[in-house]
Write a structure and sequence with these properties.
There is one protein chain. The protein has one domain. The chain is mostly helical and about 110 residues long. The protein contains four helices and no strands. It starts with a helix and ends in a 5-residue tail after the last helix.
Length: about 110
């Protein structure tokens, strides 16, 4: 019986961790309100950020600040790196996961 309880506790603790960060550990050195989570790197958000950047470049978007550009770039970069890390068909998957986790550690925070 103790064994079953121990196994259940272990499984639930890992599920809680996985829900917070499925691929990489959370960078606790970045304040929570400034931290970009893995869940923020979605295709929809990357597409919206790309449209915003294109609008800035072609002049149709004229009201923005430098933080807007940097944050949009991070959403696009993070999405691409995350997509590659999750792609199980890549031969260099371990490298792609390492690359995404390095990005999460060094760059996954919002400019404010």
């Amino acid at each position: 019986m103790k064994f079953h309880v121990t196994v259940l506790i272990f499984l639930f603790s890992n599920l809680a961790y996985a829900s917070e960060s499925a691929i990489c550990p959370i960078n606790e050195n970045v304040a929570e309100d400034m931290r970009i989570s893995e869940a923020d790197f979605t295709k929809d958000r990357a597409e919206s950020a790309t449209k915003l950047l294109v609008g800035i470049v072609d002049g149709t978007v004229t009201s923005y600040n430098s933080f807007t550009v940097y944050n949009a770039q991070k959403l696009v970069t993070g999405y691409i790196l995350k997509k590659n890390a999750l792609d199980t068909s890549l031969a260099d998957k371990d490298f792609k996961v390492q690359e995404f986790c390095s990005f999460m550690e060094k760059s996954a925070w919002w400019y404010d």
